[in-house]
Amino acid sequence: MPDEPYPTKVVDGEEYWEIPCLVPKESDPERGAYIFFAKPLDGVTGIAGLIKGDAGKHTIVDTDIDRTVLEWNDPTPDFAQFVETVPGSDTTSQVVKLQMSQRKGPPGDDGDTVLTPTDYGTPNAKDILQVNDAKTAFELVQQRVVRSHWPGSLSNAPSGTTATFQLGVVSISAGVYKNPFRLHINAGATVIGSSADLKVDIVARLGAADGPIIGYGAGVAGIQTQRTVVVSGPPAGTSVSNADYFVAGGAAATVYLMAEKKSGAATYATTEPWFSVDVEYV
Question: What contacts 124, CB < 8 A, 6 or more positions away?
Fold first, then answer.
């Protein structure tokens, strides 16, 4: 049996080397760490630190990250590192910040989806896809863009006119618009009376020369010559659901611009008529 370097002592059936040891009262970092066994109160201690140091400053990690975005095929190696932005000391916490690369993913493969217009119904030129009312599928619809229409020619009421006179007509063929629509009127005319004893209104009517009013220009009684401008819209109080004031999808539409004498003994004539209509979907 080899010689043992220290005497053996048995405590509670366990063997220990009995080693003389000197422990300095002042801490000396140059001496390194040590483990010390003692026997206070007739027992055996475990491992214990003998000297408690002063509280130090902890390192703070900046939550902002400096990212360098790399293309998927960039040869630059990926990297991640903490760099010191504020040096630490006995009174100041060190601050570090993460610098790292972030690489884009490679391009994906092209898909093979092909949209076929006939998969969604019977297509017409310039139709577009939209989500249906049930929000379950797509459907083909006509683009809802504002369009204008105007007459090929306009007429003037001749001198001596005593009653209503048709100034012009705008016609829209059936099938031009698939969805219900309203017509906004842009119109006007100059009314010249044989005297100031008259009142003539310029009126836009839908469907017939005496049809529902969709635009109105009220003349002023007692003025011999006046420019009357038509304001678009049905009479006040008209319900938005009143079918008399909009055109069904796919239907034809005709708008009549009329000079309508309302009162007075004078006759009248018109000049410089103007007339067009804009389409608004409902």
Answer: 140, 142
Q: How does pLDDT run across 16-65, given as a tens digit for each residue?
A: 777 776 666 666 666 665 555 554 444 444 444 445 567 778 899 999 99
For residue 112, is it within any domain? no
CA atoms of 32 and 28, how far apart (whole Å): 8
Same domain as 82, residue 17: no
Single pTM value for the model? 0.56
CA 267 to CA 269: how far, in whole Å? 7
pLDDT > 70: percent of the chain: 86
Once rounded to an integer, what is the mean pLDDT over residues 249-255?
94
- Report the CATH number that the domain containing residue 249 is assigned in CATH: 2.60.120
37 and 66 assigned to the same domain:
no
Q: Is residue 237 in a domain?
A: yes
Give the residue numbers spanning the domain of 20. Answer: 10-42
CB distance 273 to 157 below 8 Å: no
Q: Distance (Å, rounded) from C-alpha 152 to C-alpha 118?
A: 37
**C-alpha distances out from residue 79 to 83, 90, 189, 243, Å:** 12, 31, 78, 70
Residue 154 sits in the same domain as residue 273: yes
Residues 46-53: contacts with CB under 8 Å, at least 24 apart: 50/23, 51/27, 53/27
Position 250 in a domain: yes
Closest C-alpha to 155, from 169, 141, 173: 169
Whether residues 64 and 173 fall in one domain: no
Together in a domain, 198 and 88: no
Please give, one letter per residue, the 3-state secondary structure of 111-161: CCCCCCHHHHCCCCCCEEEEECCCCCCEEEEECCCCCEECCCCCCCCCCCE
Residue 125 in domain: no
